[in-house]
Amino acid sequence: MTPPPTPVSRLDRLRTPVLALALLVVSLYLPLAALVYLPAWYELNCAWHGRCARLGDELTRASIDNLTAFFAHAEPLAGRWSERERVHLSEVRVIYDWAGATALAALAVLALVAEPLRLRRAALINIAVVASLLLLLPVFGFFWRHVFHELLFANDLWQTTRSDLTWYLTPRTLFRNSLLALVAGGVGVNLLALLLASRWRRRSTRAGSGEAGPRG
């Protein structure tokens, strides 16, 4: 007769899904932080969608630098941002702050519960989960307007007009491209975790074999 699971065994079963969730948070936050806090992503998208050309190079660079510094709490919004934009971008910054705090907590969980086999399983699970986000691409317009913003914001301040700087700097195209970058970055981080887990396991196996060998 099989004995009933003990509280310890139940907790042990939770370690892999907890580890997978923590790794998922970290693997998505790292590329997100690069997209949000580095001006290069906005500049690259400006070259793709072409709207920024209407602002001129000087205003575009100054606005992008100001926006990324604002998100990093390095300086306030300055220049021709509308009041609606200032309120909305402040709300967005709070979301990024919470994402960063959550990622730090997830990193602590990783440090506490990671071990080679579970890390490998978690990475494999997450590669499939992150890659599945590509299923949003065919319906991205609907998702962006009716799901993404509806879930995150309780107002319509995210809607912009041609008089807003964000109409030029952050059109829907940027968010769609950001989804692709998040998927690529998230898969990349999990592939790195998979490689780390494999090497960690090999080293642990060699160390165990050395300890079990004959002694003089």
Overall average residue pLDDT: 90
Shape: elongated
- Specify the oligomeric state: single chain
Number of beta strands = 0
Brief digest:
This protein has 216 residues and is mainly α. Helices cover 75% and strands 0% of the residues.
Would you mind describing this structure in some detail?
It is a single chain. By secondary structure, the protein is mostly helical. It has eight helices and no strands. The two termini are 44 Å apart.
Task: Give structural attributes.
single chain, 8 helices, mainly alpha
Task: List the topology elements.
Blueprint: H1 7-37, H2 39-49, H3 57-71, H4 83-113, H5 116-131, H6 140-152, H7 165-169, H8 172-212
Helix pairs in contact: 1-2, 1-4, 1-5, 1-8, 5-8
